[in-house]
UniProtKB/TrEMBL annotation:
It holds the Pfam family Csp. InterPro entries: Csp_YhjQ, YHJQ-like. This is Four-helix bundle copper-binding protein. It comes from the Bacteria. It comes from Sphingomonas sabuli.
Amino acid sequence: MSIRKMIALHPDVEGHVNQPLGDAAHHLMYCARMCMSCADACSAEEMDLTQCVRKCMDCADVCEATGKLAVRRSGSNEQVLKDMLELCARVCEECAAECEKHDHEHCKLCAQICRECAADCRNAAASITPDQ
């Protein structure tokens, strides 16, 4: 199953998917879930990881919201989508930087998906032009 295929099936898209946006939508779904899982794991660690939990939860929420906008193809709100993708890239980078401070495997994995998602969000934002 692929979110890219679902987007391509939308009547307004007619099979022509913005590939960078499809890639971002895919990563946004995974990144949101990975960040929530990392936040949960951080809360169970013996050391105080309050800041990591916060950054992961914020990242999960921003990824979730951005992913919802990315898969909507009815109508047009391209500037908002571009702004959200750019914001999401920054939030993912901040989360990755925080997770990279810790030696936990869940933090390392979270940082990796956040960096990948940030790159996809930047690529998708660059592919969007107003009135697209």
